[in-house]
Amino acid sequence: AAAAAPSAGSHARAKGRAAWMPARGAGGPMASFAAGRRPQQLRLKPVKEAASSSSGPLTTKVHFRVAYEQVNLGESVRVVGNHPLIGDWVPENGLKLTTTEDIFPCWISCEQIVFESNFQVQYKYVVVGEDGQLRAWEDYTGNRTFLTSGAEMAVEDDEGQYRQFVANGEDDDEEEDADLVEPVLTIKTPEMRKLMFDHKMSMVNDLEGSFKIGIHDTVFMVALSLPIKLIRGEGGSWQLDNKAPSDGRNFAWLPLVREFRERTKKRVVCVGWPGVHVDSFREKAEIERLLAKHDYIPVFPPQQDFDKYVSFCTTFLWPVFHDVMMFFQTSKPLAFDEQGWAAYQYINNLYANAVVPHTHETDLIWIHDYHLLMTSTFISRKLVKANIGFYLHTPFPSSDSFKSLPIREELLSGMLCTDQIGFQFFAYARNFLISVKRVCGHDPSFKAGGFFGLECNGRHIMIRVAHFVYPYLDTKQVVLATPVQRQAVQVRSLFKDKIIFVSMDRCDNLSGLVPKFRAFKRFLYQNQQYKGKAVLVQYTFESASGYDSTDCLLSTLKDKADGLLEVASDGDLAITPMEGGTDASNGDIFLRIEKVSRDDRLALFRAGDVLLDTSVKAGLNLMPFEFISAHHDEEEHPLGVMPSAVIISEFSGCSRVLLGSIRVNPWNTADLVSACKRAIEMDPTEKKEFHICNLQYVSGSSPFEWFKDFLEDLRRNRKKEGMRFEAVGFGAKIRHIAMTQNFQKLPTESVMAAYRNAKNRVLLFDNEGTLASDTRNLFREYGAPKGDVSDLKSHGSAPDERVLECLRTLCQDQRNTVVILSGRDQNMLDQWFGSVPRLGLAAERGFYYRLPMTGNTWHCMQTNPDYTWQSYAFEIMRQYVKRTQGSFIESKGSALVWQYRDADQHFGSWQAKELSTNLKDLLFGFDVEIVNGKGHVEVKLRGVNKGVACTRVLAKVTQLFGEVDFVLCIGDDRSDEAMFEALTAYFGNDEEGNDSTSSQGRPEVSTTDETSEGARSEIDAAARGVATGSSPLSSPSTSDPTIPRTSDTLGSLGLAKGRTGGRGGGFGGAGTLSSLGSLNNMGAMGAGGPLGGGDRSLARLGSGNLSFGGSGGLGGSGVLEDLSGGGGGGHQKVFSCTVGRKPSAAKFYLDDVDEVSELLGSLKSQHDRRSKEVPQSYHTWSGGDMRKGMRVGSMPALSSLAYGAPTARPKP
Predict the structure, then answer these.
(1) Distance (Å, whole) CA 693 – CA 661
(2) CB distance 2 to 14 below 8 Å
(3) Fewer CB within 10 A of the terminal residue: the chain, N end or C end?
(4) For the residues of 70-102, what is the DSSP string, one character each?
(5) Is the CB of residue 919 less than 8 Å from the CB of residue 952?
(6) 3-state SS assignment for residue 363
(7) Is 224 helix (H, G, I), strand (E, B) or coil?
(8) What mean pLDDT do residues 370-378 have?
(9) Can you give the pTM of this predicted structure?
(10) What is the per-residue pLDDT across 1028-1085, written as a single tens digit (0 to 9) for each?
């Protein structure tokens, strides 16, 4: 939930956010009602909701809290405001607040007030008497206000006193133990106990929140086929069959969709293939009109492409997702089916095109199974904010199997384009997370409330684990129906007085049919007492899926079977001897080969005594659920010769939840034989307990709840408002990146314009990955290093000569301060950049630095730094290098880094966690911090980072040359994020790219994992100008925050105060003159005199006419700004830019190092062009030779007139 917009004197807390302290306005949080002020009667309309409540829940629950103790006996406090629920500004109808002796002077609301979301609430507190009549308004100027947002909020006008009472209350009876025992609040009254209970429950409920599907939102169910069946009616017209299909999961989908529609009154639209191929447009239109009445959208793929698509799914994806890798791991591997893959993408695109025209961004799109893995990719290309969920009904293969696929990136990209991914069981989700980690490098994340998922390019993708719930109640009714009962009796009559082992499987090698037949034969051979008394009845059907020939498998099964079950001419089942046989009535194994209806399947299970499942791999396997449902009443109406039992393969997903079953390894024949014997000889009481255990689980689960919970979680994880989403990449490998709204490509023209107009510029650059290509991954020294820490080598990339030439040109300009900030040491930076004069260098992330204004001597942030900790850290890191393959140690001067990005990611993360713990214990007492980052563990001096160095450079330049009016900061990796955050802290919303109305101080999305809270506090402190020390970057005489940055001379003239500065001279402000009072006309005013510093702009107000001359008086060459009376100081142009399009604290991005080089080249060209245009007499009073269209130069500062021409910036 988004935090409410703060207002002076109110304290609004949305769920999941830290509290911000209220502003102390008139009255303050401890409200005074003595000289009360009535409210301003201004009614605000609710803020318009965005696109059908796309911003979140429709309502917000609000609690009020205020601290006030000056009430008389019988008086109470109420909330009155601009909503009927809080009295509509009528004090007698306001919301009553209550207090108790435990929490006084806090007054809180006992009941939750439910406002509309995004409603601007205005309110005040009043005191009323026992009769409810007004006694006094609170003494508060204006109205308190907040914006409702999220599911629940607490408006705290008590400075958090209530929370302190709840968390830190003291027991008066144990004051002497207060220092030894944590204080506990003593609850004295029943009212307070109830308030405490409600408060705690509210905190618990906030973890999950309330995310409901909007009344105008639609749920789109996208699956391979529609859950209906089309038939030809009389006259050749198309009609809907009233019976739901019995194949796959379609028998469950249709009643489930209908139930959801009826109970929630929400619209559910099903999208899929209608089951028939039609070529004529007339028939397609007829089917579309027929299905539209029932909220079905048909997809009509070309039959030839559809056949290739189905073949690719069944012969490639189905085996692969079941960990069958016969395509790659044989002596004769099959070639990858390129045509099938092309057809797969084409059909997925057709499904996406069928969805997009009917949906908008607030609808929910739920895609099902491996047939449509790429559909989300094509939908998100057209609807970047589409709320997409995906559910995989099959297993997900192991990472070793999945990484063998030639299309692994494409399949993962399709799944990662969704907002939520569902799996049957965690084992499948674990395989997916490992594959994503190893292929894409994304790490899982966990949140309070049991939520977990992936952090992927600034987006959070939720992972939900909940298997498909079998429709028990519907099945129970079907089992009790006459057709099923009659067929069950018929099956029993064929095998009278025999123990029937039953099974239903598709005819493929994943069903384990051959091991099942072999084990059952051995069971009867080893237990002759059951010979002729136990039979196996196997139903199977041919399937297009699989990696081997179905005909070959059927031939093998027929050879092992003793008889076939077939439907006779009279419609009853009959036993047919196998070819060459005579009498099959005394056989052991009977086979029925055909696709039977659901009634036939349930009749078989109803008649059976033992279910025998030997699946080699199955995602869920619904057959055990059907068998248990078919025996729901076996105690009252027993049909078999013994209580039922269930034998399940441990490779079936259902074995994890049906705990009353006998689990077996189908490849262990002896284990299968023992399980068959145990199922028969198990004690009836134990068998009954097992059956009850399974029946309770099957009957206690609700398909409707499973359906609803998935959709609510999908809505909860919809893409955030206020973020921008972009697709990066080509073809099927695109990835979606979430960025803040103001994150955009660096506008080169704006940079050049700001650069031209600026007088005091600072340019900050990282080196590797910014000015030079990052080739650090090419230099790895594996194995435990020999020697000590001083022998560690560092490798890097030097910039090319073109970049160095650009830097030389930029450094020649006296208005520029150019600094390179790198993690490399001083020697390496001297070697790379020593040929560039007047270039500032900051080595080891700013620990050592050399600035043009401080001379060519290297300085250190600390005096006499202690490096003894490096020896300890190096030795323990060396031990971990010995035992972690692929890890190595890297020296960064003032920091040591243990890198494990080339090691196994999971093993490396385990070792990193242990190493971090050991380092914290070993280095306790040293002024260092241990950072466990992505792929590394770093030990560095506390408070040393590029952000602190950046802030000190800006402070030093400001102290010497006035306010900086242009900053360009470019970096590429996590360490550079500290620079971007420092710029935000230093300049606030003046930074270019920020919305002046935004209250966002730091971007929501950041890839920074190296800047600790301590480092951020150092950045903030430096930004406030309180950095101290002996460093030349700090000056006691100029860093005092009490020294104003504005010119008092401007204030004495009634002008708005601008920022100090300008390298152009004088002592005046360099800011914009934005308020001229009643002046209508001023003579030529200059920006270079004692009242102005540099070439800054002047503001023209109202109807006043300002004339600007090129010489004399106060004239200058400033740029005009018409502010129409608005006050305000100067505006700096600050450009923070990251290399690569990724979530960042920067405001802009460039795509690669080449674009950075092009930008430097443009700045160099600008400098060269300006040097040619400016005449030698540019600084003369008359402007010199004005031929060739030269513009008039600025008048020299008065201080310069006393000593001649303006002097250049002093050299260090």
Answers:
(1) 9
(2) yes
(3) C
(4) ---TT-EEEEEESSGGGGGG-GGGSEE-B--TT
(5) no
(6) coil
(7) strand
(8) 95
(9) 0.70
(10) 333 344 333 333 333 333 333 333 333 333 333 444 433 333 333 333 333 333 333 3
